[in-house]
């Protein structure tokens, strides 16, 4: 009996869902691309871990660090931007954070993949890890391109937030400079 009364007038609230895709920070295409970035960087990291010998291990360790960092922090960013958790952190402009992070990781992945590619030896695991490192790099650069195409550069936006005035209009600059007459 209660179902007959409440069902026709009750509608689900879409804001109550856990995952907020699409949202102001992440549309569906970029969400899928972020998932691809996470998967590719994870595969590159796992494949790098299977390399059992190296002549000069510094490039291997650098690639390991960057691919693991790319995996973990991109996963964190993906979770933050696709849920309501980003509201609990005191960051106002997530587009700048996303652009800077994605650019830095893309650059580091490119450098570490190039360095590891030049000093990988003849190991198949290392070659495949480098391939996945470059694929992840391409995904990060495509993400930057999509971000700039859809939102523009967040540093160049002319829509600056106005100062909070609590409803009181500040005096114009000319009025502040005039001497008071008594």
TrEMBL record:
The chain crosses the membrane at residues 59-79, 99-118, 124-148. Residues 25-152 form the MARVEL domain. This is MARVEL domain-containing protein. It is found in: Membrane. Residues 173-182 have a biased composition (Basic and acidic residues). The keyword Lyase does not apply. Its main location: membrane. Pfam families: MARVEL. Keywords: Membrane, Transmembrane, Transmembrane helix. The keyword Transmembrane helix applies. It comes from Oreochromis aureus (Israeli tilapia). One of its GO terms (cellular component) is membrane. Residues 161-182 are annotated as: Disordered. It is a multi-pass membrane protein.
């Amino acid at each position: 009996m209660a179902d007959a009364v409440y069902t026709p007038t009750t509608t689900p609230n879409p804001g109550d869902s856990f995952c907020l895709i699409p949202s102001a920070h992440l549309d569906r295409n970029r969400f899928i691309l972020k998932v691809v970035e996470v998967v590719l960087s994870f595969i590159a990291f796992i494949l790098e871990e299977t390399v059992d010998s190296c002549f000069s291990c510094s490039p291997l360790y650098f690639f390991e660090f960057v691919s693991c960092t790319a995996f973990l922090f991109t996963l964190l960013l993906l979770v933050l931007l696709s849920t309501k958790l980003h509201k609990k952190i005191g960051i106002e402009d997530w587009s700048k954070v996303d652009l800077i992070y994605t650019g830095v990781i893309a650059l580091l992945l490119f450098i570490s993949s190039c360095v590891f590619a030049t000093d990988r030896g003849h190991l198949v695991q290392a070659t495949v890890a480098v391939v996945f490192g470059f694929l992840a790099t391409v995904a990060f650069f495509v993400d930057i391109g999509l971000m700039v195409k859809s939102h523009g550069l967040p540093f160049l936006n002319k829509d600056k937030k106005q100062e909070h005035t609590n409803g009181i209009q500040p005096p114009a600059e000319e009025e502040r400079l005039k001497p008071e007459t008594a």
